[in-house]
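User: I would dearly like some help making sense of a protein record. I have put the entry right below:
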Amino acid sequence: MKLGDWPLPYVRVKCSKCDREGRLSKEGLIERFGPDREMFVVREKLTEPSCKRPDKKQPCQSVLPDGLLVQAITAEKDDEIIDKRLTAEAKKWREEKK
């Protein structure tokens, strides 16, 4: 998914190893990286330089914690939603986009 297609007004990035977490505005990230930058690249560029992992030979363990919510928001049908617990929240986000 490209940054411009991310349906939330923010992007959260979290390290699954050290629990560092940050939340940035989508608009600010678009200014910095452009709307066509892939989300996995944005995630990496946000976390890699400041990652505190002791072994730099190992990859950074950063994740996009809202990934399943984004999947639920962008699903064309409710039965395509991976985590059904997110259905109601996804519907709220879809309504806000209209």
Remarks:
- The helical segments are 26-33, 39-47, 67-74, 87-97.
- The CA atoms of residues 7 and 31 lie 16 Å apart.
- The longest helix spans residues 87-97.
